[in-house]
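re: ur question from yesterday

yeah so i grabbed the chain u mentioned. its 133 aa long if i counted rite. heres the sequnce exactly as i have it in my notes:
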Amino acid sequence: MQTDRTVDRNSDTTKKKDHIWKIIEAEVNAKNPDVRRSLENIKIKWKNLKIRAKEDLSNAKKSVSKTGSVQKLFLSKCIKLDSNRQASLRSQNHDKIMSNSLFNDTLNNNNMLINQTTDSVEDQSYMTFPTTF
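ran it thru and got these structure tokens back, copy pasting raw so excuse formatting
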């Protein structure tokens, strides 16, 4: 049974959510003014992104139960994300890439990317890696 207080709280929450979605819509449309996105399109895209992320998480958990390690899955995704940047660096600064300092910077950037990727996953309980292989 809903009381007046519950209804007020629900309507306040709905108003806040609607306001935030309107801000998101304005920011999305400000980034690309040539292509106007409706609020409904943005919500559908967000829903699809969440579904894909949950599927990836589910596949990672299945992979852990089969192989005992999800490390390869995350590393392959990180390599895909980072390959364009590395190719760009190689074409622009081939000699510098071979130098120790830039090579170490590239390794550090890759480690940061891996950390960012793993930090962005909501449920990290499956990410305990075995110490021996």
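noticed a couple things. Residues 88-103, 117-133 have pLDDT under 50 and may be disordered. also The longest helix spans residues 39-67.
anyway ttyl
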